[in-house]
């Protein structure tokens, strides 16, 4: 939303005109996002596991658990930047993010159990990043599985592939769509 707001308000085009490189802007936003994600992880894990005493098996899984949460946040950041690049208005970007996030949330098993889904949706929902991350986090926290387990390797590697694909898509759009930070009127 920060990128969309700066794009529609013209702040990005003025910054680019002043000499700020796009890589510098994205790096600063990424660093800021990483700090925010880190604070969210600390607060959320403290509340979930210290205040409410949710079970967690802390063998080697705490670092892995935090790493999975960081990957999730980074994937969300790159998806938000991609949405800001492709949308021309704030409302269009918010519709895209809300629609895709809500559909992932519903199909990942968070609201509607995967076992109750029709077969064609169940096949599709196996590859949704939110479901992969949720299963990986459950397996690490509740079952105590480490990075040597095939399910954990598959969940993390698939999520990393999704994140890398988003970054590559942003790089390709940056090469072919010149001045994507400027809204043409």
Automatic annotation (TrEMBL):
CC terms in the record's Gene Ontology section: membrane
The keyword Ribosomal protein belongs to this UniProt entry's keyword annotation: no
Residues covered by the ABC-2 type transporter transmembrane domain: 3-135
GO molecular function, a single term: ABC-type transporter activity
Topology in membrane: Multi-pass membrane protein
Record InterPro entries: ABC2_TM (IPR013525)
Subcellular location: Membrane
Keyword tags: Membrane, Transmembrane, Transmembrane helix
Pfam families membership: ABC2_membrane
Residue ranges crossing the lipid bilayer per the database entry: 22-50, 62-86, 93-114, 152-173
Protein name listed in UniProt: ABC-2 type transporter transmembrane domain-containing protein
Species classification: Eukaryota, Metazoa, Ecdysozoa, Arthropoda, Hexapoda
């Amino acid at each position: 939303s920060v990128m969309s707001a700066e794009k529609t308000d013209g702040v990005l085009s003025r910054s680019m005109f002043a000499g700020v490189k796009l890589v510098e802007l994205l790096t600063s936003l990424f660093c800021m996002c990483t700090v925010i994600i880190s604070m969210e992880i600390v607060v959320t894990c403290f509340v979930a596991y210290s205040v409410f005493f949710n079970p967690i098996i802390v063998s080697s899984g705490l670092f892995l658990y935090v790493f999975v949460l960081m990957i999730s946040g980074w994937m969300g950041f790159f998806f938000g930047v991609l949405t800001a690049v492709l949308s021309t208005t704030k409302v269009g970007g918010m519709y895209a993010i809300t629609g895709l996030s809500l559909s992932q949330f519903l199909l990942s098993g968070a609201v509607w159990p995967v076992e109750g889904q029709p077969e064609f949706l169940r096949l599709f929902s196996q590859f949704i990043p939110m479901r992969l991350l949720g299963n990986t986090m459950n397996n690490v926290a509740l079952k105590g599985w480490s990075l040597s387990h095939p399910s954990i390797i598959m969940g993390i590697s698939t999520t990393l592939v999704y994140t890398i694909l988003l970054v590559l898509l942003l790089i390709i759009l940056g090469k072919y769509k010149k001045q994507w930070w400027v809204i043409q009127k």
